[in-house]
Write a structure and sequence with these properties.
The complex is a heterodimer of chains A (about 210) and B (about 250).
Chain A (H helix, E strand, L loop, with lengths): L1 E2 L4 E7 L3 E7 L4 E7 L3 E7 L5 E10 L4 E10 L5 E10 L4 E10 L7 E10 L5 E10 L5 E9 L3 H9 L4 H17 L12 H8 L4
Parallel strand pairs in A: 1-3, 2-4, 3-5, 4-6, 5-7, 6-8, 7-9, 8-10, 9-11, 10-12
Helix pairs in contact in A: 1-2, 2-3
Chain B lengths: L2 E12 L2 E12 L3 E5 L6 H9 L5 E9 L2 E2 L5 H6 L2 E4 L6 E5 H15 L7 H15 L9 E2 L5 H15 L3 E5 L7 H13 L6 E5 L13 E6 L2 E6 L1 H10 L5
Parallel strand pairs in B: 3-10, 3-11, 6-9, 9-10
Antiparallel strand pairs in B: 1-2, 1-4, 4-5, 7-8, 11-12
Helix pairs in contact in B: 4-5, 5-6
Chain lengths: ~210, ~250
């Protein structure tokens, strides 16, 4: 599909598999949010001044397995891209993130950020991360970060020391981890089915 | 004046290394006990063991809180039963707001005591009231727990939480470290105002300075995992003058 000059394409996908191939024209803006679904998103910034944002949260349990792929290409300069992909993996869940980011030789003054953070809640959960950066222009700002870790034991103990049940403390920390992605989603896009999750993460008292 | 805490021949280790080598201590309601001692004597280990930090292993001995076996309780149960630790290094918890954290803690404690949870309005009123005590700004409510707080704000935030939770036994672990004199005064005044005839505190400190503000009933010297000397507040002054070697 094509996002025409100056247009905004903004979509939230919840629990539905996503396959998107998008060509962006000048000054167009793509914002994609994915919650709990496998996805493969390819975005080509073909003209100047494009913005691309991809935010994803995958909370996997049991034997679930999800692959998330992004292929973002900056063919011309002056564009920005921002990606934040988070996985929370429990039980025997398996996650995989493949992130290709290309900045073409002519794409000067591109700003591109790709971040993949993963939280393992069990010893048997597994995450594979394959970021691939190809940067051929020199006047760019590009960052990427990938990390996989466990819940912070010192934070858990701190909360327990204040009387918070260990299980609830874990929930609060997992919620805090997920919040960074959920906070990106505009309220108008949020379906009713997501409200309980958002309330849980914000600690709203029912 | 009832007995609040009794520690009997407590031994504890971390990573197989014995740190506490037979601590005995009785604390009654209304008392302030200072524990002083050189680095590595076991001061922070004692606070970690009393609060149930899983990194430490109790190898022998007993601890009783109001006649109940403290060592058999999970850390969160100890907290709800009224044991509070003001951490030497308060932990930053990004993404968990102070409000959410504190409301969860308060309501868990109230549930344990068989009380109804506070309504959001009651809770916010209580927060506001207690924050004044520590001269903490309102904006801290919306920030993540301890995240980006200055050293002084972190320590004030510990005492603020103590004010919210009203523990029967407060353990202040090096609460004076990293505080300038103004913050020290505010923190100490907060602690003093929370004092009642029913509660008690253990003030762990390296220096006499804090004890100018929080006057202890007893001063204990912990060295090499044991309490080697006990006296009144003048012992702290003596230590300041002669050092621990002078004992």
């Amino acid at each position: 599909m094509k996002v025409s000059k100056g247009e905004i394409f903004e979509r939230l996908f919840v629990n539905e598999e996503v396959h998107l191939q998008i060509d962006q024209e000048a000054h167009s803006h793509v914002k994609i949010y994915v919650i709990n679904a496998p996805f493969s998103i390819t975005v080509n910034q073909l003209e100047e001044g494009c913005q691309t944002e991809i935010y994803a949260l995958e909370h996997l349990r049991g034997e679930e397995s999800v692959t998330a792929e992004t292929h973002v290409t900056h063919a011309v300069g002056g564009g920005t891209s921002n990606q934040l992909i988070k996985f929370v993996l429990d039980d025997n869940a398996r996650g995989r993130f493949i992130g290709d980011l290309k900045i073409a030789p002519d794409a000067q003054q591109t700003e591109a950020h790709q971040t993949n953070r993963n939280l393992l809640l069990s010893e048997t959960a597994e995450m594979r991360t394959q970021p691939q950066l190809e940067i051929y222009a020199d006047d760019v700002q590009a960052t990427h970060g990938a990390s996989t870790g466990q819940l912070d034991e010192s934070a858990l103990f701190y909360m327990q020391q204040r009387g918070i049940d260990k299980q609830k403390a874990r929930q609060l920390l997992v919620g805090a981890f997920m919040k960074e992605v959920l906070d990106k989603i505009p309220h108008a896009l949020i379906p009713n089915s997501l409200i309980p999750l958002l309330n849980a993460v914000d600690g709203v008292v029912e | 004046m009832g007995k609040l805490l009794e520690i009997k021949d407590l031994h504890a280790s971390i990573g197989g290394k014995e740190i506490l080598k037979g601590v005995n201590l009785v604390i009654n309601e209304g008392e302030v006990h200072a524990i002083m001692g050189p680095n590595g004597a076991g001061k922070s280990t004692l606070s970690a063991v009393l609060t149930g930090n899983p990194a430490y292993e109790v190898t022998s001995g007993e601890v009783w809180l109001k006649g109940e076996n403290l060592l058999a309780m999970e850390p969160e149960i100890r907290a709800r039963a009224g044991v509070f630790l003001s951490f030497q290094y308060p932990v930053e918890i990004p993404g968990v707001s102070m409000t959410n954290f504190m409301r969860t803690a308060i309501n868990e404690k109230r549930a344990y005591e068989g009380k109804k949870p506070l309504s959001p309005k009651e809770f916010l009123t209580l927060m506001r009231e207690k924050k004044k005590l520590l001269e903490l700004p309102d904006k801290l409510n919306n920030r993540s727990v301890n995240e980006g707080f200055s050293g002084g704000e972190k320590k004030k935030n510990e005492i603020f939480q103590m004010a919210m939770l009203e523990p029967c036994l407060a353990i202040l672990d090096e609460t004076d470290s990293g505080l300038d004199i103004d913050a020290l005064r505010i923190v100490a005044e907060g602690v003093n105002r929370l004092k009642t005839p029913q509660n008690a505190s253990i003030v762990i400190t390296h220096y006499q300075r804090l004890l100018d503000y929080i006057i202890p009933d007893f001063v204990h010297v912990l060295a090499d995992g044991k309490i080697v000397k006990t006296g009144d507040k003048t012992l702290a002054l003596e230590l300041e003058e002669k050092g621990y070697e002078g004992l």
